[in-house]
DNA sequence: CCTACTGTTCGAGTTGCTTCGAACAACCGG
DNA sequence: CCGGTTGTTCGAAGCAACTCGAACAGTAGG
């Protein structure tokens, strides 16, 4: 079919339940990643991993998968790398106020908003 | 000492980390309980349990403990029973906007606020 | 007192998440 | 084409959380 390449499945945010989103955010490593994406915008996996501390690739990929399946981030092929994006607008529509509350401390100013 | 009776330990909200709070809220049963407390105000354990569906006492008590240790609810002796209260003001101060976002759908009007 | 009532704690079984190394897949440059 | 780079998937080991019955503790009432 029109399967251009390594496209991973992303859920519709309408299908995501709040507990699933909260669970994805309840891990410190994943929460940090979301915060980083909120402030610095789209990043490659390597860039996230570099700032996030030193963890094996597979572990990091697992967290990424959890966030993706919870509808919080988008993970798309970009040449040889992969771009990770926070689904901010969609999340804000599905769970109003959640992202702002969760980011909280890390959003001192309205930089990327 | 001045240990009047069955007082359970409650954390200072300043000591509660956001991931711990999110984790406590990431279980459907616990989230429902928090929503119920937000709308109906302080309840006895029996009252919560009645509305929340049919689960063994011990299971329910476990969820209550998780919420208590996450600083989300207060659980105090009231005669023969126990009163469960949502620590709304403290949570709002520690994690601004979080409760409103999480309650969201269940707060159509500003009833108890 | 002694019983009934309310709710927590303990212990065991099961399930699920986390973590990691190794194997696999896609892409780009020489 | 072939090697190096980037990142996901697989499988296994370790550990934490969920569930539930049974035992325990405090309280009110007869």
What does this structure look like?
The structure is a homodimer of 113-residue chains. With 113 residues, the first copy, chain A, is α+β, with helices and mostly antiparallel strands. Chain A has helices at 18-25, 28-40, 45-51, 57-69, 88-94, 98-103; strands spanning 43-44, 73-78, 81-86. In chain A, a hairpin with a 2-residue loop joins strand 2 and strand 3 (81-86). The model of chain A is unreliable at 1-5 (pLDDT under 50). Chain A binds chain B through residues 17-20, 22-23, 25-28, 31, 95-98, 100-102, 104, and chain B through 17-20, 22-23, 25-28, 31, 95-98, 100-102, 104. The first copy, chain A, binds a DNA duplex (30 and 30 nucleotides) through helix 4.
Task: Present the secondary structure layout.
2 copies of one chain form a homodimer.
Chain A: H1 18-25, H2 28-40, E1 43-44, H3 45-51, H4 57-69, E2 73-78, E3 81-86, H5 88-94, H6 98-103
Antiparallel strand pairs in A: 1-3, 2-3
Chain A binds a DNA duplex (30 and 30 nucleotides) through residues 5-6, 8, 27, 44-46, 55-66, 77, 79-82.
Largest sheet report of chain A: 3 strands, antiparallel
Please state how the strands of the largest beta sheet of chain A are arranged side by side: 1-3-2
Most extensive chain interface and residues per partner: A-B, 19 and 19 residues
Helix and strand element order of chain A:
HHEHHEEHH
Low-confidence stretches of chain A: 1-5
| Distance between the ends of chain A | 37 Å
What class would the helix/strand composition of chain A place it in? alpha+beta
Helical fraction of chain A:
40-55%
Identify the quaternary structure here: homodimer
Q: Count helical runs of chain A.
A: 6
**Proportion of strand residues of chain A:** 5-15%
Mean pLDDT of chain A: 91
How many extended strands of chain A? 3
Shape of chain A: globular
Indicate the radius of gyration of chain A in whole angstroms: 14 Å
């Amino acid at each position: 079919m029109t399967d251009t390449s390594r496209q991973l499945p992303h859920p519709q945010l309408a299908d995501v339940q709040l507990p699933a989103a909260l669970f994805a955010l309840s891990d410190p490593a994943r929460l940090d990643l979301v915060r980083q994406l909120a402030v610095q915008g789209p990043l490659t996996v390597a860039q996230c991993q570099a700032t996030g501390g030193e963890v094996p690739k597979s572990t990091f990929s697992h967290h990424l998968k959890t966030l993706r399946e919870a509808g919080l981030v988008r993970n798309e092929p970009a040449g040889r790398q992969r771009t990770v994006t926070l689904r901010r607008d969609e999340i804000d529509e599905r769970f109003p106020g959640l992202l702002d509350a969760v980011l909280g401390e890390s959003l001192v100013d309205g930089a990327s908003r």
